[in-house]
Amino acid sequence: MDPVVIVGAGPVGAASAILLAQRGVPCLLLDRYPTPYPLPRAVHVDDEVMRILQELGIAARFAEVSRPGLGLRLLDGRHRVMAEFRRDPGPGPHGWPQANMFDQPDLERLLRDRVAELPLIEFRGGVTVTAVTSTSVTYTAADGERTVAASAVLGCDGANSTVRSLIGATLEDLGFEERWLVVDGVTDRDLAAWGGVHQVCDPRRAATFMQLGRHRYRWEFRLHDGEPGLDEPALLAPWLDGAEVTVVRSAEYTFRARIAFTWRRDRVFLLGDAAHQTPPFIGQGLGAGLRDAHNLAWKLAATLSEGSPALLDSYQRERKPHARAQIRLAIVAGWAMTGGQDRAAAVRRVVLGAVWRLPGLKGLALRSTSPPLRQVGRGRRAGTLAPQPTVVWEGRDVPLDDVLGPGWAVLCRPGVLLKHGRARVVWVTPSLDPTGALRRWMGRRRTVLLRPDRVVAGNGWTPLAE
């Protein structure tokens, strides 16, 4: 089998290679740089994405270098608390904390280490891709130009994607563009930071502040149109209480909302920022790219091993509406927290104060569940992600995914007669599910069919495709 050639070895590209290699698919992973990008960018993943890291085999190590996020605190321009939405730092419905704060270089190191552990992945850095087809990739390296055969090509090469340009895909502008200054700093002093995210809801100078690790912090400040560079010390001073901070990165970014019209040309696919770009206000940029990889990898592996090309048609059909919905939510969240003029800020202060005191709305503000995928199967739960409670298997407490394995699975009530083909059947009994979490989720359903990415494919019984 010719390898799947993956262009871009950031988190999305590395994750794609790992997921494919774990399913027996050889991969060639290409990147412009020989080593991971050293500066932090993404800082948050939710519990659904943690399940993907679990499948990648790095979640336990990632948990050692990340920390649970405690929620969101909304401040006015004088840093007075308008509302506070606290989050339980314990495991959520997917077996991990619902918000996880981290430093991206730590994640990239873990992913590269995992790539090196898998013999089916070959990594080549310091290369520039110059041509792409469904069956080949041409690139230049220090020793000249090469063309390699490919069974498929994945463009995971970021917002300025070469692969996207080479296949002629264009971007739809969803109507958002803002300039922000992002500052990452390190200090030995405890800044007495609350363990969640601080969002300054001030149209004159919207800002975000969060603690990423024991000594690492991030500040983000909105820049207005035509505004020159800002005085960093003056911006940071209100947060420091006299502490000295070593700035490890200070860069201006333009946050945009864009999505590719097409994510695929034959067997060339776009993933991550190559396919969609979102403002950061709900912390789903990196997560969306990892969801792309998780959605596509099992389908591509099945197509290459079993000849199921129709599966590949569902990649854009499922992922594009999901990504668009999250981008729209990020735009709305950004305006709600930072948009408008002084009058809007006053209204926001009153409304947020009221929301803070309503338990139902307060919980909704922290809800991490992503929208269901569309056109997946029959049943009300079709397209939703199944939960991952801890279950008892062979006398040990383990996360459900460890029991389900990497393929299709059927959760089944005792007493059901089932002809299951190649799916793994897991009987949901009190001994497996002593807390009852899985049985409560199943409700009256006697069987639930789960895809390899743990998305519900149907209730009752839906025959698996041969």
Automatic annotation (TrEMBL):
<dbReference type="GO" id="GO:0019622">
    <property type="term" value="P:3-(3-hydroxy)phenylpropionate catabolic process"/>
</dbReference>
<protein>
    <submittedName>
        <fullName>3-(3-hydroxyphenyl)propionate hydroxylase</fullName>
    </submittedName>
</protein>
<dbReference type="InterPro" id="IPR050631">
    <property type="entry name" value="PheA/TfdB_FAD_monoxygenase"/>
</dbReference>
<dbReference type="InterPro" id="IPR002938">
    <property type="entry name" value="FAD-bd"/>
</dbReference>
<dbReference type="Pfam" id="PF01494">
    <property type="entry name" value="FAD_binding_3"/>
</dbReference>
<keyword id="KW-0560">Oxidoreductase</keyword>
<feature type="domain" description="FAD-binding">
    <location>
        <begin position="3"/>
        <end position="328"/>
    </location>
</feature>
<dbReference type="GO" id="GO:0071949">
    <property type="term" value="F:FAD binding"/>
</dbReference>
<dbReference type="GO" id="GO:0008688">
    <property type="term" value="F:3-(3-hydroxyphenyl)propionate hydroxylase activity"/>
</dbReference>
<dbReference type="InterPro" id="IPR036188">
    <property type="entry name" value="FAD/NAD-bd_sf"/>
</dbReference>
